[in-house]
Amino acid sequence: MGILLIVLTVYYPLKEKQELELKTIELENEVKTLSYSIQENQKNVDRLQRFLKENGKTYESNIQLNEVEKLNNQNHINQLQTERKHSEIQIRKRYTRLYEIMFWIFFPIGIFLVFFGFIKWKAAKTFDDNILKLENEKLEIEVDRMRGEKTKKKK
């Protein structure tokens, strides 16, 4: 039981922790990409707003205005995705910490159960050895008694 507990507390939490850390790294990279996209979109918005101020209201400026609106919407969407990914990263970090705690709780318990089981097994084995020794002595006595009875009958 102890060995099973050790194996499960080492294998499962470490496996889960590794998967969570890999996913966290992936999410952090996505956050960086989204942040870069937000910055670039903001630069484009600023550039287009300057263009509109310089050129006034024209057909081309209306197209540019629509472009600015699209970029602003894209920035809002990217910002929401970034916030969601940040919260997911925080949740994953909490689960990673939980698996570390599980490891340090159950691993020592598993080691304790292994040693406790070994000590109890050794005591039971010693007891069984003593019982076998007594049974052997009892059988030897019975064999000696039967041999003694056979020799008395022959005389």
UniProtKB/TrEMBL annotation:
It comes from the Bacteria. The chain crosses the membrane at residues 101-119. The keyword Transmembrane applies. Keywords: Membrane, Transmembrane, Transmembrane helix. This is Septum formation initiator.
